[in-house]
Design goal:
This protein has about 120 residues and is an alpha+beta fold. The protein has two domains: about 1-40, no CATH class; about 65-115. The protein has helices at about 1-20, 65-75, and strands at about 20-25, 30-35, 40, 80-90, 95-100, 105-110, 115. The strands form two sheets. The chain has a four-stranded antiparallel β-sheet with strand order 4-5-6-7, with helices on one face. A hairpin with a 2-residue loop joins strand 5 (about 95-100) and strand 6. The longest helix has 17 residues, at about 1-20. The two termini are about 35 Å apart. About 5% of the residues are buried. The model has no long low-confidence stretch (mean pLDDT about 80).
């Protein structure tokens, strides 16, 4: 009986965390916050994607030439279309926030391999 109660509690908690959250913005619009870190208006209209919106006083972070070459091939971009917004490197790894063709993207390095921030290195 205790095992059944434990399993039911565990399942109810997992369903709660997997659901989208409905919220209201400061200007009164209803939005849905999704579990994949995206959002949409509750009425079904499209989100207003403003691109990178870096501002006039923005200064590019240090460019990693290996990552730059990888991103150029991965996204079929030119060097001028890639802006390094933020970088966080360590021995054997690192994380980068980039603006590629007007869209924010994350990349990471695990050992000597670059990959998109949302990719699983084990392929699972």
């Amino acid at each position: 009986m205790k095992n059944l109660i434990f399993i039911l509690c565990f399942l109810s908690i997992s369903f709660t965390f997997a659901q989208d959250i409905k919220a209201t913005t400061q200007d009164g619009k209803s939005v849905i916050l999704k579990s994949d870190n995206t959002w949409s208006y509750a009425d079904g209209s499209e989100t207003n994607d403003e691109g990178c919106n870096l501002g006039e006083d923005f200064k590019q972070s240090k460019v990693n030439k290996g990552l730059l070459n990888h991103v150029m091939v991965d996204t079929d971009s030119k060097k001028e279309e890639i802006i390094f917004i933020k970088s966080n490197t360590s021995l054997g790894g690192g994380n980068w926030l980039l603006c590629v063709k007007g869209k924010k993207m994350t990349y990471k390095r695990v050992g000597s391999v670059f990959m998109r921030g949302d990719e699983n290195p084990l392929g699972n």
